[in-house]
Amino acid sequence: MIEPVDAFSNTKPTMGALMRRHHMFLIALLSSRFAIAQYPTPQGTAVPAPLARQNPFSAASSLPFQAPPFDKIGDADFQPAIEEGMTRNLAEVEAIANNPDAPTFANTIEAMERSGAMLTRVQRVFGALTQSNTNPTLQRIQADEAPRLAAHRDAIYLNPKLFARVKAIYDQRDTLNLDPESKELVERYYRNFVRAGARLSDADKTALRALNKEQSQLTTEYRKRVLNATNASAIVLDTKEELAGLSDADIAAAAEAAKSRNMPGKYVLTLQNTTQQPPQTYLENRALRERLFNGSVQRGDGGPNDTKAIASRLAQLRAQRSKLLGFPNYAAFNLDDEMAKTPENAIKFMTDMVPAATEKARGEAARMQKLIDQQGGGFKLQPWDWQFYAEQVRKAEYDLDESQVRPYFELDHVLRDGVFFAANKLYAITFKERKDVPIYHPDVRVFEVTDADGKPLALFYADFFSRPSKSGGAWTGAFVGQSKLLGMKPAVYNVENFTKPASGQPALLSFSDVTTMFHEFGHALHGMFSNVKYPTLAGSSVPRDFVEFPSQFNEHWALEPTVFANFAKHYQTGAAMPQALVDKIKKSRTFNQGFATTEYLAAALLDMAWHTLSADAPLQDVTKFEPEALERYHVNMTEVPPRYHTTYFSHIWGGGYAAGYYAYLWSEVLDDDAYYWFREHGGMTRANGQRYRDLILSRGGTANPAAMYREFRGRDPIVEPLLIERGLAARPPG
Ligand SMILES: [Zn+2]
């Protein structure tokens, strides 16, 4: 199985109130299955220490679904397992490359699909834990191994004998009688080799290797600094009075957060990844709102965790890398392999939406300014005021109070009677909690998923609560990927950052959290329903601008009346949510969408600005580049800063979303359009669910995504459903 670029480009996610999700999808499918070829370590030659006999990664797990034996895995196991995994993988790949027999699909492509089993096992677990339960030891291993794994990938992709075999098969692909999936796999391999530099001269290959190594070091360092800066920017408060406006549960959580940081008696407001911070919605103390906001936007800007130089070098380095590969800039390189195809298509898609979004945002700002003036505020609306006054407008115009709805969204109800219930209605799958499967943290829960025909389908892990060892946001990945060739069924996980309730208290979610659960579970379904032969094409191995389609699509079921009524029950009385309150939630969905769309477009266009720089452009000054870029695309509203500033935009600098942040909105076109197909065809029926599963969810990357979508929808996607859903276009009557 071959993965694009950075073997550690796992995840980095995000979420915020008032927004549709923009979580990163965790590519836990990474794991090149190839070995490092005589690549020297920073210290010398790579000679892994002999593997302890009991290393838990050395053989396939004997647990159900080959679940990782977390009860036997210690921090000390990872580095030797990664090293040994690379060594074994090297031997396998060398054997394939040096095979004296003429290249065939079986002895080359399929043989590569079978290679790298140990490395895959350890990387999937290691990649997951460095995001969801990291510590200084794991961070050090990650820093050590990231450049070595990048070099390992290069050793495979830049191996001329191996490429010659892949190319020979690619050239004959139309005469080999391959089934469609196998043919797709051949094309994928060939494309990945070419995109990794297989056709370059030796001198250019050497230059590329150096850039790849530097990139992997810089992305790892960027992630580490953002995590450190985010933890360091948490706001510590001495008195409860300062938190006026927050709910009792949020205050208790702030006290708990202080306790876990050895500051008993104090209160800690922790930061989320995004620019805007959820407590700003409630904090009455304007100075504290400003302080929280400043703590957020100053992350990575100065101090020991400064990320500016890393970001500007990464932008330059990626441009240089792309030039070597024959592209004018990184965005052109990246989008060549996406559904959008060119940066021009993606940029136009977004700039077409800018006027409607900013006009709506300006209207929202004017409405709030009026409110401030009516209250005799005597100040101009600032970004740290936005959510606070937006909430007041929401209460006044929609009469919806977040604290009124939370008691109806108790986590376990949402999970079992909402998320699982919807999946059962559509796909007839069932869930049983298992307490006997080892876990990596006491908060993690495991469910066995049974298919409609009664056969075991997958294992599903859920890790809901925030903690300092976890990156911000929400994401999905797999400890075990599906493959008929390898006889493997999926073990998939969802990670979220819900506030952990004080002990003994129920976890009461916001509607935004509820939506997050449905979102991540949509990714999980994509992994669990995967029904393909080859691991490289399994589950979410689809273009980035397609990968958020199943997840965002699944969000729609949260508000489906039969689903909603089933899970939205008062946690104490069991009473259904009053219809008036349900109506308010629905009505308020388009509320603040001018802001949400604008802050998203600003971040996504900023991403494009960075990644359309050419290779000969000088290193950019972040503090000048960013405002100029925002102005160029007309998304420079003071009150609506980008959802991420350059200095903490982990999606693009620390994750796999470089020149790809637009993908969420692109996928949203698909998900809204697909949802409208359901509405036009009788809604949430078992038959419709099966059709969607068969034509989209089960197919992974075995077919062209545009063609797959067309087969499901009967035509190409259109943007109107998205504009209607976001309130940027009028809903048609009826
Ligand atoms: Zn997602």
What does this entry look like structurally?
By secondary structure, the chain is mainly α. The protein is 50% helix and 5% strand. The strands form two sheets. A five-stranded mixed β-sheet has the order 3-4-5-7-6, sandwiched between helices. The protein has a two-stranded antiparallel sheet with strand order 1-2. Strand 4 and strand 5 form a beta hairpin. Helix 7 runs antiparallel to helix 10, helix 16 packs antiparallel against helix 19 and helix 18 crosses helix 24. The protein is globular and about 85 Å long. 52% of the residues are buried. It binds zinc ion. The site of zinc ion (ZN) has 7 residues, from helix 17 and helix 18.
Percent helix = 40-55%
Q: What is the rounded Rg?
A: 25 Å
Structural class: mainly alpha
* Major beta sheet summary: 5 strands, mixed
Determine the number of helices (DSSP H or I, runs of at least 4 residues). 27
Distance between the termini: 48 Å
Low-confidence parts = 1-48
Number of E strands: 7
Describe the secondary-structure layout.
Blueprint: H1 75-97, H2 105-114, H3 117-132, H4 136-157, H5 160-171, H6 180-195, H7 202-232, E1 235-237, H8 248-260, E2 267-269, H9 286-297, H10 308-324, H11 330-335, H12 343-351, H13 354-374, H14 383-398, H15 402-405, H16 411-427, E3 430-433, E4 445-450, E5 456-465, E6 475-480, E7 491-498, H17 511-528, H18 544-555, H19 561-567, H20 579-587, H21 593-611, H22 622-632, H23 650-653, H24 663-680, H25 686-697, H26 705-713, H27 720-725
Parallel strand pairs: 5-7
Antiparallel strand pairs: 1-2, 3-4, 4-5, 6-7
Helix pairs in contact: 1-2, 1-3, 1-4, 1-5, 4-7, 5-6, 7-10, 12-21, 13-14, 13-21, 16-17, 16-19, 17-18, 18-24, 25-26
Bound molecules: zinc ion (ZN).
